[in-house]
Amino acid sequence: MTTELLKGVTGVLVLADGTVYQGIGHGASGSALGEVCFNTAMTGYQEILTDPSYMDQIVAFTFPHVGNVGVNPDDVEQLGNDPTRAAKGAIFRDAPTPPANWRSTMSFNDWLVSRGVVALSGIDTRALTKRIREHGMPHGVIAHDPNGNFDIAALQKQAAEWAGLVGLDLAIKATSAQSSDYTTDLWQWPEGYKDGTRHEHNVVVIDYGVKQNILRALIGIGAKVKIVPAETKAEDILALKPDGVLLSNGPGDPAATGAYAVPEIQKLVQSGKPVFGICLGHQMLALALGAKTVKMDQGHHGANHPVKDITTDKVEIVSMNHGFAVDRESLPAGVVETHVSLFDNTNCGIALANQPVFSVQHHPEASPGPVDSLYLFERFAGYMKDAKAVVA
Ligand SMILES: NC(=O)CC[C@H](N)C(=O)O
């Protein structure tokens, strides 16, 4: 295959089927392989690119102006700094302008370089988005070379040979190596971050690649938070005497993660403790309860998705980031559907009919995005309070 590259091209996106998008490279030089998805959020690129659920994915922003407010130390979603536990690449329409924001401590480009993340601007992101909408999320390689030397055939081969996210357990790579305590409360104007002071509930978070704002939202409901690695046994979690357990978001295929996680989640459900799952945690709770998950064609990635809480009939506008979904038809008796996407009617939430066990596909912690769904953390707090009242 021969592809004529236009003069001045320093960045390319090469898809598995040989399609080449030519533009301007940013961030690190080199190449990155992954599934290409589009995200419709208009703000929050730093939170998006540091979300561990985007491991092995290249994020194409539909909003054209990305990077113009620089980056800061506060808007980081992953725990720690390992850039391999986050999005692999970024694509946006316009080249970023110099940072203009009082919170900015670094330019977007320097930050991408410091993290080794390859980025691309100047391509027709609308055409790419329409393609994903029609044909699903392709496998692709994004490459940046300031001298414009690209071996397109080799890049295409790499994309075509990649097996993709189905069957891939990435939570095992995204999780914390050790248990730790988390103390930071939600960001507040004008103080910024502060430690939480109320310790009304003990929450153990199983970290499959957790976003920090989930942890902060738990601190926000007065929880004392202990993070444990993905493979922690239920017995060890219960020995910590939690009032509730949170199953976190995370990257990869839930079915591939389920092998070690599902039996432990089943034991946690049997213990009667309140359990709250978010995104990957939702999918794995569903698997543990006997349901199935499926791969989606285009997935949901954005900060403007309407979701209906069937239990209250209220619509919430939510943050989304998932490429797999719980198959509604597979929900066993006793598992109730609680939330549904008003974009495509996919399942967005489940609960046990007679136990404080529930989960949602969307991101109630936002970051980025609207905070309509923060009430779910309050619901979790209510369940923990009620459970303690029964024991006492
Ligand atoms: N944000 C998440 O937890 C994503 C869950 C899962 N990896 C998916 O893509 O569906």
UniProtKB/TrEMBL annotation:
Alphabetized Pfam families for the sequence: CPSase_sm_chain, GATase
Function: Small subunit of the glutamine-dependent carbamoyl phosphate synthetase (CPSase). CPSase catalyzes the formation of carbamoyl phosphate from the ammonia moiety of glutamine, carbonate, and phosphate donated by ATP, constituting the first step of 2 biosynthetic pathways, one leading to arginine and/or urea and the other to pyrimidine nucleotides. The small subunit (glutamine amidotransferase) binds and cleaves glutamine to supply the large subunit with the substrate ammonia.
Region CPSase, residue ranges: 1-197
Annotated protein name in UniProt: Carbamoyl phosphate synthase small chain
Residues at the catalytic site: 279, 363, 365
NCBIfam families noted in UniProt: CPSaseIIsmall, PRK12838.1
Organism placement in taxonomy: Bacteria, Pseudomonadati, Pseudomonadota, Alphaproteobacteria, Caulobacterales
Binding, L-glutamine: 53, 250, 252, 280, 283, 321, 323-324
Enzyme nomenclature, EC number: 6.3.5.5
TM region(s), chain numbering: none
Enzyme class name: ligase
Annotated ranges, domain Carbamoyl-phosphate synthase small subunit N-terminal: 9-143
Catalytic activity entry: hydrogencarbonate + L-glutamine + 2 ATP + H2O = carbamoyl phosphate + L-glutamate + 2 ADP + phosphate + 2 H(+); L-glutamine + H2O = L-glutamate + NH4(+)
One example GO MF annotation: carbamoyl-phosphate synthase (glutamine-hydrolyzing) activity
Keyword Membrane: no
Swiss-Prot/TrEMBL keywords: Amino-acid biosynthesis, Arginine biosynthesis, ATP-binding, Glutamine amidotransferase, Ligase, Nucleotide-binding, Pyrimidine biosynthesis
Family from the record: Belongs to the CarA family.
PANTHER family in alphabetical order: CARBAMOYL-PHOSPHATE SYNTHASE SMALL CHAIN, MULTIFUNCTIONAL TRYPTOPHAN BIOSYNTHESIS PROTEIN-RELATED
